């Protein structure tokens, strides 16, 4: 991507750990950047946010948006939707994986009005700020019980031992599924990710695993929703609320509601997993910030927003133009695909002064890590609570994260720009032998975080 002329943007050539220098180059030189179907086969066939050019198959221009102004306009604008106007599809799932396509295309994030409006009205109340506030003691308990066995270890995989199971156990509690099944859910969530269009390693075998996982999760949630639909009394959890909604509104079909649960369980924990892993990575090179947060725990909430801005767990999302528009003097045709590069928008100096500096006291209310407009993340309040609580507990309980710890760090990323973050993050005491692996977390979490029997 060097030289005088910018090459067609290709996300497959980015450094997974640090794409920001390349983002800056495009943001400064070609902020609304066109990649036409003849420019590059590689990135044309990739999808960003699970709904890319593979879904449309129209040969339309793909526009990469690198500045905050254009990213915000597209995310909030009604002229840009989740599905291709040419095909009506959202997810680029090849033929032969019909279960996977059916489940994913019914996810709330891929729906447009009026179906999105109807379903969103049912999902919002249990995930609203007031409802989530009541979960704070339970969320804290989950975090503390997961962190406790990590405190005495000389080597810890932060992702496997904490960042992955923690939000999964929280959303499991909100939905009303059994916490002891979290390893089963995690395995299937990871299988679904193998079908992601941004994956540089997507294969037929991975798509087959994703299709099987989609079917298993669909069957699980269909059975659970059926049991709740037939139950008496007021709903006790989010699945109960969705089952009641299905009784009242025939448009909320069992398949749509089961897919909604799959979406909330999988995407609802992966973004927080990425956020926590990236926050820990950022803190490891900033012992002064660690000391500041430990001395003033009240700063953690604001710090979460700054981590979301500085290195968001969702780097790119896609929209489709449903009518002709103009962005920064460029003509956007109906049917064109637009990729909002959120990671670049969050480093735009026109919106965030000194954007490459992590400043936990920064006012970051303008970030778009949770989206904008009608697709603003329904679980934003829950994600904030998880991130604030998880980060606070790690700062308090994990010796390897103390300002003077200076652990050895081993980090690996999955090749994914939607669920972006470390897939493995091992912190190792410098006195430990390099060959020893961190002890894996228990398969069944402590009894204190099990859901009460119905």
Provide keyphrases for this structure.
18 helices; 10 strands; disordered C terminus; Cytochrome p450; 454 residues; alpha+beta
Number of strands: 10
CATH class type: Mainly Alpha
Radius of gyration: 21 Å
The CATH topology comes to: Cytochrome p450
The total number of structural domains is 1
The helix fraction, in percent, is: 40-55%
The rough form would be described as globular
What does this structure look like?
The protein is of the alpha+beta class. It has a single domain, classed as Cytochrome p450 (Orthogonal Bundle), CATH 1.10.630. The protein has 18 helices and ten strands. β9 and β10 form a beta hairpin. α8 runs antiparallel to α10. The longest helix has 31 residues.
Strand and helix layout:
Blueprint: H1 20-29, E1 32-35, H2 41-44, H3 53-56, E2 62-65, H4 68-76, E3 80-81, H5 98-105, H6 115-127, H7 129-133, H8 136-147, E4 155-157, H9 158-163, H10 165-175, H11 182-193, H12 204-229, H13 238-248, H14 254-284, H15 287-295, H16 300-310, E5 316-321, E6 325-327, E7 330-332, E8 337-341, H17 342-345, H18 380-397, E9 408-413, E10 422-428
Parallel strand pairs: 2-8
Antiparallel strand pairs: 1-2, 3-5, 4-10, 5-8, 6-7, 9-10
Helix pairs in contact: 5-12, 5-14, 8-10, 8-18, 10-11, 10-14, 11-12, 11-14, 12-13, 12-14, 14-18, 16-18
């Amino acid at each position: 991507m060097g030289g005088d002329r910018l090459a067609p943007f290709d996300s497959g050539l980015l450094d997974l750990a640090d794409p920001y220098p390349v983002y800056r180059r495009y943001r400064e030189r070609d902020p609304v950047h066109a990649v036409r179907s003849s420019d590059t086969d590689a990135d044309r066939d990739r999808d960003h946010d699970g709904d890319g050019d593979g879904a449309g198959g129209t040969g339309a221009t793909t526009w990469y948006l690198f500045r905050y102004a254009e990213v915000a306009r597209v995310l909030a604008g009604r002229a840009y939707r989740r599905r291709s106007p040419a095909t009506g599809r959202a997810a680029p799932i090849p033929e032969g994986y019909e279960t996977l396509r059916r489940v994913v295309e019914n996810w709330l994030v891929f729906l447009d009005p009026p179906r999105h409006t109807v379903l969103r009205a049912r999902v919002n109340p249990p995930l609203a700020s007031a409802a989530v506030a009541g979960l704070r003691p339970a969320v804290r308990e989950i975090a503390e019980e997961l962190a406790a066995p990590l405190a005495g270890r000389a080597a810890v995989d932060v992702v496997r031992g904490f960042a992955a199971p923690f939000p999964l156990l929280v959303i499991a509690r909100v939905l009303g599924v059994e916490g002891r099944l979290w390893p089963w859910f995690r395995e299937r969530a990871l299988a679904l990710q193998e079908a992601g269009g941004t994956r540089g390693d997507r294969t037929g075998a991975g798509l087959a695993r994703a299709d099987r996982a989609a079917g298993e999760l669909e069957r699980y949630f269909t059975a659970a929703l059926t049991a709740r639909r037939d139950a008496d009394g007021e709903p006790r959890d989010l699945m109960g609320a969705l089952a009641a909604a299905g009784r009242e509104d025939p448009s909320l079909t069992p398949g749509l509601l089961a897919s909604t649960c799959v979406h909330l369980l999988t995407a609802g924990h992966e973004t927080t997993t990425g956020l926590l892993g990236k926050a820990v990575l950022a803190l490891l090179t900033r012992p002064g910030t660690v000391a500041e947060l430990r001395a003033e725990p009240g700063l953690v909430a604001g710090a979460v927003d700054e981590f979301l801005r500085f290195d968001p767990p969702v780097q790119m999302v896609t929209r489709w133009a449903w009518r002709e528009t103009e962005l920064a003097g460029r003509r956007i045709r109906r049917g064109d695909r637009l990729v909002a590069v959120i990671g670049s928008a969050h480093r735009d100096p026109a919106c965030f002064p000194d954007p490459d500096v992590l400043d936990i006291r920064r006012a970051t209310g303008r970030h778009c890590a949770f989206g904008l407009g009608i697709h603003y993340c329904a679980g934003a309040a829950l994600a904030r609570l998880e991130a604030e609580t998880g980060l606070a507990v790690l700062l308090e309980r994990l010796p390897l994260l103390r300002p003077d710890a200076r652990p050895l760090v081993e980090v690996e990323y999955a090749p994914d720009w939607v669920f972006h973050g470390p897939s493995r993050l091992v912190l190792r005491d410098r006195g430990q032998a390099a060959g020893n692996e961190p002890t894996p977390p228990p398969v069944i979490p402590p009894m204190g975080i099990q859901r009460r029997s119905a």
